[in-house]
């Protein structure tokens, strides 16, 4: 069990001792811990935000004995209501840990931390770990008599585990990373009813004190789902989707958009011998309850073409496809939300995936407020597994009898408690393996499963 003292010790090791208090009542300050995102052998993206418009200086140098002089990047945190920026720090050395310090000009307080770069070409695939989670509701009020958001200590658990992790790592948030809230019973309007309220909700959640250690503990990538896009089950008709997209890109230091000319959050990046395809399941999504036909789409033709071409052309040993909505659940499972409601788009892709026999494909998803693992068998090729990891802190949902009867469900791996996951890429017994694990909110292991091997 992770103690609060261990978390504070980990935070100090990560440089969080220099993070200014987020409860300061006066003066411009950093609004939250800086967030390191996409990283390559020569660059890192870093998100920073202030409580008001300011000039920001980011000083960074390789960790370890003094030698290389510190470099400084300066950026204006503008006054458009966000006061945030994603800064690309380039010209870096491969496979190197850097220490950084973020300070606002003319303001008190600063934040210190660390980021790292990826290994350069020819280094050979190294072992690494990806932390997984979705459905992070950050309040603890009750709805219908039971807690909707609970076990917030999971963020401390994950931060402490990352601090002690012997493997290089990053985190992939699998959607519903925050919740744009409905109108309240007291008359407060829904967060997704105006751009101003959406901006305030993003700012408020990112500044939560219990998130700060996790934000600073590793690099972060993200996809979205309905609750950090708009209202429940929101689709392409959400009137504020352009503002929602702007907010997502302003807060998550992801790679550049993946499908050229296609708006949305899709992205593609490679780390070691693994290529990641991050899908956008909201911006182009037809309504879930629209009549089923061949044109009804969750991802859209352009994004599906981008994905198939990427999988076919990838030279990576493993190809990880991440979606906010479940991909392999059967439409007989009694659940309305998922790709099974779009069979005109899904069936051709799954047929292609089976016939192509592309090795090393792994699917990830979230959304369902329980964790499930699905297996899709392929003739003449290894099966494809989907690890659907949920929830971090949101309300739990028990699997229905129909869900348990799903022929693709690996029943022994179903988890009906709050949890987080990892996906490790390791060399064992002469083979590269993708090993999935699931943990409860205290860090106790629940199961381990090999999802692919090459």
- Overall geometry: globular
Low-confidence stretches: 1-25
Order of helices and strands: HEEEEEEEEEEHEHHEHEEHEHEEEHEEE
Total strands: 21
Q: Helicity, in percent?
A: 10-25%
Head-to-tail CA distance between termini: 35 Å
Instruction: Trace the largest sheet across and list its strands.
Output: 12-11-8-19-20-21
From the alpha-carbon coordinates, what is the Rg to the nearest angstrom?
Answer: 21 Å
Classify the beta-strand content into a percent band.
Answer: 25-35%
Largest sheet: 6 strands, mixed
Summed up, the helix count is 8
Helical/strand content category: alpha+beta
Q: Let me know the average pLDDT.
A: 91
Features:
454 residues; alpha+beta; six-stranded mixed sheet; 18% helix; disordered N terminus
Textual characterization of the structure:
The strands form 5 sheets. A 6-stranded mixed β-sheet has the order 12-11-8-19-20-21. 45% of the residues are buried. The chain is globular and about 60 Å long. It contains 8 helices and 21 strands. It has 454 residues and is of the alpha+beta class.
């Amino acid at each position: 069990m992770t103690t609060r003292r261990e978390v504070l010790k980990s935070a100090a090791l990560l440089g969080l001792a220099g993070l200014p208090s987020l409860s300061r009542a006066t003066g411009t300050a950093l609004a939250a811990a800086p967030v390191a995102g996409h990283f390559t052998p020569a660059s890192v993206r870093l998100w920073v935000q202030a409580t008001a418009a300011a000039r920001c200086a980011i000083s960074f140098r390789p960790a370890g004995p003094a030698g290389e002089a510190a470099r400084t990047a300066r950026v204006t945190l503008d006054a458009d209501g966000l006061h945030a920026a994603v800064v690309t720090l380039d010209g870096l050395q491969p496979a190197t840990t850097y220490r950084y310090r973020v300070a606002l000009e003319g303001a008190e307080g600063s934040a210190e931390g660390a980021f790292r770069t990826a290994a350069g070409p020819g280094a050979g695939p190294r072992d690494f770990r990806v932390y997984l989670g979705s459905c992070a509701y950050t309040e603890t009020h009750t709805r219908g008599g039971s807690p909707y958001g609970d076990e917030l200590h999971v963020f401390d658990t994950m931060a402490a585990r990352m601090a002690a992790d012997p493997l290089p790592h990053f985190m992939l948030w699998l959607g519903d990373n925050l919740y744009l809230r409905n109108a309240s019973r007291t008359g407060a309007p829904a967060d997704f009813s105006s751009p101003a309220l959406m901006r305030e909700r993003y700012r408020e959640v990112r500044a939560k004190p219990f998130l700060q250690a996790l934000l600073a503990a590793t690099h972060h990538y993200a996809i979205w789902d309905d609750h950090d896009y708009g209202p429940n089950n929101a689709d392409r008709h959400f009137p504020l989707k352009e503002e929602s997209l702007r907010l997502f890109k302003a807060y998550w230091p992801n790679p550049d958009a993946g499908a050229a000319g296609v708006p949305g959050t899709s992205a593609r990046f490679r780390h070691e011998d693994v290529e990641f395809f991050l899908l956008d399941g909201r911006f182009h999504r037809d309504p879930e309850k629209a009549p089923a036909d061949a044109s009804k789409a969750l991802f859209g033709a352009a994004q599906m073409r981008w994905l198939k071409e990427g999988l076919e052309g990838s030279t990576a040993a493993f190809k990880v496809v991440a979606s906010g909505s479940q991909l392999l659940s059967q439409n007989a499972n009694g659940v309305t939300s998922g790709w099974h409601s779009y069979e005109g788009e899904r069936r051709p892709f799954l047929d292609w995936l089976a016939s192509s026999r592309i090795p090393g494909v792994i699917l990830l998803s979230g959304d369902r407020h329980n964790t499930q693992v699905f297996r899709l068998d392929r003739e003449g090729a290894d099966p494809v597994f989907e690890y659907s990891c949920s929830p971090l802190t949101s309300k739990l949902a028990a699997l229905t009898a129909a869900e348990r009867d799903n022929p693709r469900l690996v029943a022994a791996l179903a988890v009906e408690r709050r949890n987080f996951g990892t996906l490790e890429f390791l060399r064992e017994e002469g083979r590269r393996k993708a090993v999935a694990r699931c943990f409860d909110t205290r860090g106790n292991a629940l199961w381990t499963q090999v999802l692919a091997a090459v």
